[in-house]
Amino acid sequence: MERGRESRGLEPKIIKTARRLFIEKGFAETSMSDIALEAGINRPVLHYYFRTKERMFHAVFGQIVLSFLPRLSGIIQQKEKSLSERIGEIVEVYSQIFMENPNLPLFIVREIHRDPGYLLDALRGLQIECYLQPLLGTLREEMGEERWNGISLPFLFYTFYGLLVVPFLSKGMGMQVFFKTESEFRNMLSRWKPYVVRQLVALLSGGHQ
After folding, report:
1. Which of 70, 74, 82 is nearest to 204 (CA)?
2. Which of 49, 86, 92, 183 is 20 to 30 A (C-alpha) from 161?
């Protein structure tokens, strides 16, 4: 019984360890030996759960994506709420995730740069269509109705993620130039969130909120 419970608890521990190392060092710079050492197990045990580093990456990336995508899909489809309300909720979801995982934006950008095709294949393997299609359908429907000022999806994507991730990607420089403490940086982020919402609402409504 004890071994069974230990076995059930080991896989989540491995994924948690791999997630931390992948986010900190990137996929290419993280080895299976690194993960086994940090998880306190040997290589054969690690390979029993994950035969390859690629499979482990898919498990880690899937955990990250599925931690927020269902929530985003649910928020965007709440048409009874105003545009500003929905954007505010989405910004809050991302802000919480990035505050808990401040290196996550760099990890995603790094992996996109390393091999965007591999990252897209990982997304396809998650079978996220059940979340993605309703989300995109709602966006296209509202854009088609000109409720969002005719903004194309690429423009919306780049504006949204640019506003959200740049403070985290440039945090090191910001701490040298703008902020003296972590508390000051966090205070700036709390003021940044409503600014992001205002910018996105202005974009989508042609400058009128």
Report:
1. 82
2. 183
